[in-house]
Write a structure and sequence with these properties.
441 residues; alpha/beta; TIM Barrel; 8-stranded parallel barrel; 3-stranded mixed β-sheet
């Protein structure tokens, strides 16, 4: 096994998202979001909802204590837009800001650096009713919301991420319908949602930077190498198209201010003069969410005439996702060579398995431990070879509401009993704790 050694100052922690863990959806003036509506439509596979989830809204001190005990020094959490501006624009709910005040203060008291993400998929429903990410009307409200939150927290929160996985929002929320808001708008709907998230991100970055100095500003992208299922020309072309959609619209937008050439014609009707400069921003830190490579083939009838091919791997997670740690190494080295080696951190990396509570009351999740070890070996190798990687945050701290799968898929390094809400650290928690504390080499 490769030695798990990392550069001085390398950071360790976990990521979560508000909708997946907070619960308290009716508390303290919170407004409705697209996932509330989607859930109410009966579209969650196991019939569950996020009304309670992990009840982090009330139990966050316990969860912070778990991170502190693990030796984690960083925590990426998302701020719920509908808690702050319930209608998406207009009146501000002070009780929502008060909650994040308490959370941030508790993190700092525990010696944990807060990393705030402004948008992790909980678009206020009134904004979706007005067109959502299909149009420009959402751009100004997002920038205003960013300004409001930063005005309250930027004296203590120094690291700000704008979006989380805009590609997933666009493709699954507006293209294929497996995620909220559940639209099936095809290729154009996907590209419009990607572009308007890019515009909102650029506006929010500028809004915060105009009023605050000394902050680290960035965003979080789900980047996954897209490889062809075969060497057939049509499969090679399909993988390139999917790479443009999944990776390059978001990455090249913020990093280069460029629309991918493969998509320029398809996006011409809604990309206006000045847009490319508006979406480019010299971010300080790029968050990367990585789960696997994507093996793609040409198949008509799917978005961009691309569909899943046969992944070549030895193991699969409980989500039926391939385990391919080498893809993370490839991704980091590509950013080094092709994107001027930006400062990056792994913002999400993890896996769901069907955990079993053993007779001793513990969760011996050996498959998850192996997953983490192999991916950390890939990160360590990339760092040794000069990749500018600053830290690693696992997905996720807690088992949680896994979007359209509901409560049935467990990604946490801490088990949550959804009946009692008791937290039980798993073996994977202890493994990451050992690495974070320097004990597992």
């Amino acid at each position: 096994m490769t030695s798990l050694t990392f550069p001085p100052g390398f950071r360790w922690g976990a990521s979560t998202s508000a909708y997946q863990i907070e619960g308290a959806l009716d508390a303290d003036g919170r407004g409705a979001c697209v996932w509330d509506t989607y859930t109410a439509q009966g579209r969650i596979q196991d019939g569950s909802n996020a009304a309670t989830a992990c009840d982090h809204y009330h139990r966050f001190p316990e969860d912070i204590a778990l991170m502190k005990a693990a030796g984690f020094d960083s925590y990426r959490f998302s701020i719920a837009w509908p808690r702050i501006v319930p209608a998406g624009t207009g009146a501000v709910e002070p009780r929502g800001l008060d909650f994040y005040d308490r959370l941030v203060d508790a993190l700092l008291e525990a010696g944990i650096t807060p990393m705030a993400c402004l948008y992790h998929w909980d678009l206020p429903q009134p904004l979706e009713d007005a067109g959502g990410w299909q149009g420009r009307a959402v751009v100004g409200p997002f920038a205003d919301y960013a300004r409001i939150v930063a005005a309250r927290l930027a004296d203590r929160v120094k690291e700000w991420m704008m979006l989380n996985e805009p590609n997933v929002v666009a493709i699954h929320g507006y293209g294929t319908g497996e995620h909220a808001p559940g639209h099936q708008l095809g290729d154009t709907g996907i590209l419009r949602a990607l572009h308007h998230q890019n515009l909102a991100q650029g506006a929010a970055l500028r809004a915060i930077a105009a009023e605050h100095s000394g902050l680290t500003l960035g965003t979080v992208l789900n980047l996954q190498p897209s490889v062809p299922d075969s060497d057939r020309p049509e499969d090679v072309a399909a993988a390139a198209r999917w790479d443009a959609v999944w990776n390059r619209v978001s990455l090249d937008g913020v990093m280069r201010g460029q629309i991918p050439p493969l998509l320029a014609e398809a996006m011409a009707d809604f990309v206006l003069p000045g847009d490319e400069e508006a979406i480019r921003y010299p971010i300080d830190l790029l968050g990367i969410n990585y789960y696997s490579r994507m093996t793609m083939k040409h198949e008509e009838g799917h978005p961009f005439d691309v569909w899943w091919g046969e992944a070549r791997c030895r193991r699969w997670t409980g989500m039926a996702w391939p385990v391919q740690p080498e893809g993370l190494y490839d991704l980091l080295t590509e950013l080094r060579t092709d994107y001027a080696n930006p400062a990056v951190f792994i913002a999400e990396n993890g896996c769901a398995y069907d955990d079993v509570v053993a007779d001793d009351g513990q969760i011996h999740d050996d498959e998850r431990v192996l997953f983490f070890r192999e991916h950390l070996e890939a990160v360590a190798q990339a760092a040794r070879e000069g990749c500018n990687v600053k830290g690693y945050l696992c997905w996720s701290l807690l088992d949680n509401f896994e979007w359209a799968f509901g409560l049935s898929k467990r990604f946490g390094v801490v088990r949550v009993d959804y009946d009692t809400l008791a937290r039980t650290p798993k073996d994977s928690y202890r493994f990451l704790s050992s690495v974070a504390k320097g004990g597992d080499k």
